[in-house]
Amino acid sequence: CYPMAGFGNFTSSKGEAFVKVEWQIYSKLDRSVVHSVGTEGSSKVTDASSGGGETVVLNAFAQAARNLLADQKFREITIRGGQTVKETTFKTTGGLVATPGKATPMKDDASIWKDGVVTVYAGKGHGSGFVIGENLILTNHHVIGDSNKLVVKFGSGFEVSGEVIAYNSGRDVAAIKINASLPKYFSIKRELSSIGSEVFAIGSPLSGEYGSTVTKGIISAYRDEGGKKFIQSDVNVRPGNSGGPLVTKNGQVIGMTVSGVQINGAGQGINFFIPIGDALDALNIKE
Predict the structure, then answer these.
(1) How far apart are CA 15 and CA 37, in angstroms?
(2) How far apart are alpha carbons 43 and 55 in whole angstroms?
(3) How confident is the model at residue 4 (pLDDT cuts 50, 70, 90)?
(4) DSSP label at 158?
(5) Per the residue annotation, which of 187, 233, 242, 259 is the catalytic one?
(6) Residue 193 in contact with residue 137, Cβ under 8 Å?
(7) Which of 238, 235, 132, 115 lies closest to 177, judged by CA?
(8) 172 is catalytic
């Protein structure tokens, strides 16, 4: 309140404040929020002073920050520094083999690439994925979350249920098996393409209605983060592209979309992809 407001003084104030803060720790290695905790703080100023309203709010926030230090897991994580803080989980039925069956590999015709790319619906969200065998699909682990069963939708509109048969959260990759024999699949190129090489990203940016969107760019750089290699490209990807393929002009997969730099929701042309060889090795998939 402003006790001197009757005299035209709207700077001297006093009062009480209560704040509730939700804190989150984001791990760059795990590429996800690894811990959340809520704290509260309150403050009271009984004597009116200039800027008293701001002071009481800042004091309440400071109390909430001090209460954060009482959270044991927060202390453990911050003490570890840059280490990964979420256990890497791995689930598989043994060594997997990406068998083509009667399916034929994609080539340089971008108009048919949609036959090998899917929108993955798991929980309340969606992501992208791509076919590497007659019934095997790859995507990101953060796309599937805790789901074991999910739905995949092809660019043609064909929908089928799928089962998560392997995942590695530390490398953010997962494999989905579907009960169907698919006609097309993406062949793998483990060799790293040179910087400046032309590449294409395919996926479902923002919404499933934009499934099988193809964008074009180049390989900008190769980066290492926490001992993990990433392909950097200026190809346009947005939320929803996660798990989709990065392919050469010949239709060979060289990477999987995983993240991108955004400022105020706008992409900055700095996007990252897991090299396909690393993705397969993390899942113990043989070609």
Answers:
(1) 27
(2) 9
(3) low
(4) -
(5) 242
(6) no
(7) 132
(8) yes
Catalytic residue among 115, 128, 142, 278: 142
Phi, psi (rounded to 5 degrees) for 52: -60, -35
Tokens at 172, concatenated: 């953010």
Task: Let me know if 197 is a catalytic residue.
Answer: no
- Check: CB of residue 98 under 8 Å from CB of residue 136: yes
Distances 138 to 119, 168, 226 between C-alpha atoms, Å: 11, 12, 23
Q: Which amino acid is at 112?
A: I
DSSP H or E run through 282: helix 276-283
**11 in Cβ contact with 66 (< 8 Å):** no
Q: Give yes or no for residue 6 having a pLDDT over 70.
A: no
Give, rounded to a whole angstrom, the gap between the first and last alpha carbons of the chain: 71
What are the two backbone dihedrals, phi and then psi, of residue 251, each rounded to the nearest 5 degrees? 85, 20
pLDDT tens-place string over residues 203-216: 998 888 888 899 99
**Options 172, 193, 212, 234, the catalytic residue:** 172
Rounded Cα–Cα distance for residues 276 and 262 (Å): 24
- In the beta sheet, which residues pair with residue 230? 223
Q: Which amino acid is at 17?
A: A
Residue 142 known to be catalytic: yes
